[in-house]
Amino acid sequence: MPAEPIIRFHGAAGTVTGSCQLLEFGPARILVDCGLFQGAKTEKELNYRSFPFDPSKIDAVILTHAHIDHSGLLPKLVKLGYDGPIFATPATRDLCTVMLPDSAHIQESEVDQRNRRSLRRGRDAVTPIYAAHDAAIAITLFRPVPLGAWQEAAAGIRFRFWNAGHLLGSASVEMEVGAAPSPLRLLFSGDIGPRHKLLQFDATAPSGWHYVVCESTYGDVAREQASDATRRNILRAEVMAATHPNGALIIPSFAVERTQELLTDLVHLMDTGAITRCPIIIDSPLATQASEIFRRHARELENGDALVRAIEARNVRFTETVEQSKALDLMRGFHIVIAASGMCEAGRIRHRLKNWLWRDEGTVLLVGYQAAGTLGRFLEDGASVVRIQGDDIRVRARIRTLDIYSGHADGVELADWVRARQPIRGGVFLVHGEEDALEALRQRLSKFLPEVRLIRPRLDAAFRLGAEGLVEISDATPPRIDPYRAGHTDWHNDFQSLVLDLQDELAKAADDKARGVVLRRLRRALMEEA
Predict the structure, then answer these.
(1) Rounded to whole angstroms, how far apart are CA atoms 218 and 121?
(2) pLDDT tens-place string over residues 200-252
(3) C-alpha 112: how far from its chain's center?
(4) pLDDT for the residue 1
(5) Selection from 80, 95, 75 nearest residue 141 by Cα
(6) Predicted structure pTM score
(7) In whole angstroms, what is the distance from residue 85 CA to residue 144 CA?
(8) How many other CB atoms are found less than 10 A from the CB of residue 339?
(9) CB-based contacts of 209: which residues, under 8 Å, 6+ apart?
């Protein structure tokens, strides 16, 4: 009797980052994605730990798209011994040639800053997750595979890509495991884009599966379907409300795709007279490089010609040097800055926020998903004080959220996507979502699929996949972190919140005597707890 494959969920299980699924079939080992964990420190620390598998024994990696939460640990995989192929669409390969080195640069610069602080505090130094040369080696392993072309990944496993509509080059993965005429058929959604996305055609894939692994990022959201005109009108209203003679509109944005979409719409609104023309600055070296790749692939994009016109507009500037970026703090007159990262966790956006959050003439417009524990999520949730680079910043700027540019399908669209993949004989694994989103999508799917076939795997869970059903299996190795903590804030976040609350109480106290009372109450509470 032929072996049944085993699937292991080593990322994006109960959370939205660190996407990584391991498929085992006999001696074959295939990874679908190998992404960086983002969000709370407890999850981010997984980036520094050993993989729960031996990288040197992986036969192939199949990459759904270039976003760092799907590709960002590939250099670490290579650093620890992987030397096999990384299969991806040609556009994904091109984007990774700039995104992975950029990620390595961020790892090195953040660790350098962290080690300086550690040295002052007498703490041990740490090393980066990986370095630039690891990213350079990883790029040499990429093997481009066009949409629709069958490719053997390992003995007994073949796959092909289908457009996922999420990002330039993004793909869902159709996989056949075992020999014809009746192989086990699996579909990995990757990230599915919404309908009416500016630069991407709608997602597609065949029907008839044993198992589907489906993302759930916005499983609890039902957006109003928006045309290009509706989307631009909403953006226009935000720009007009933000306009101030001495102000700025600061947009934390993912450097790849989201930045290009926003730029295209902003220039269109200015060209048509819907908003007053003003400087638009793209303050991200990665976004600059990515925009050039988008220009090269413009023929593959919906509205690619409009994107090219926007990139070439006279009022659009791309900062290249650190000095050019710093000079933005000296600009006068209303202007728009789009800077990475989209969750405000790294990069130049933190400098722009440090300069503008305390000023009531500024507006910060959040245009993408903000994972739990990130600075972007704290701003989205209404924090009055945040900490950036060791400094406490009072939030006086307007904080606005605009979900209409999301790169992810909402709950209704995801349910429709799964419905169109039927029949599904074995089950649907719901991944890449937080608790509420996972449960909401499960409820949507239960209207046309038996609930027993809807599985929400926890981090490092494993399942044996049969043609008629699955069995969860347990290994002796314990999970790397408490699986129920994935996708939530952790004690690091709680501690920072406590410090900020304490500082706020001390600031509100009338005098030193009142501040002493606050501190004595805190000490008393700590002693009682002990």
Answers:
(1) 41
(2) 999 999 999 999 999 999 999 998 877 899 999 999 999 999 999 999 999 99
(3) 24
(4) 38
(5) 75
(6) 0.85
(7) 10
(8) 27
(9) 185, 186, 187, 421, 423, 424, 425, 426
Distance CA 528, CA 530 (A): 5
From CA 13, how far away is CA 53, in angstroms rounded? Answer: 17
| Order of strands across the sheet that contains 335-339 | 316-318, 280-283, 335-339, 248-252, 362-366, 398-401
Structure confidence by residue, pLDDT tens digits, 127-168: 899 999 999 999 999 999 999 999 999 999 999 999 999 999
Q: Which amino acid is at 289?
A: Q
3-state SS class at 364: strand
Contact 32, 18 (CB under 8 A): no
- How large is the angle between the packed helices 132-140 and 90-121, nearest 10 degrees? 160
Which contiguous run of DSSP H or E holds residue 154?
strand 151-154
Q: Could you tell me the CA-to-CA distances from 176 to 89, 159, 182, 185 in Å, in that order?
A: 18, 6, 9, 5
Query: Strand locations in 237-315, DSSP E?
Result: 248-252, 280-283
For the chain, state the CA radius of gyration: 24
Nearest alpha-carbon partner for 301 in 228, 197, 204: 197
Tokens found for residue 322 = 């650190």
Handedness of CA 118, 124, 125, 126 (dihedral sign): negative
Q: How confident is the model over 282-315, as pLDDT tens digits?
A: 999 999 999 999 999 999 999 999 999 999 999 9
**pLDDT (tens digit per residue) in 493-507:** 455 556 666 666 776
**pLDDT tens readout for residues 158-196:** 999 999 999 999 999 999 999 878 899 999 999 999 998
Output the CA angle 491-378-382, nearest 5 degrees: 130
Residues 6 or more apart from 318 whose CB is under 8 A from it?
A: 281, 282, 287, 288, 291
SS3 label, residue 397: coil
The whole-angstrom separation of Cα 44 and Cα 68 is 13
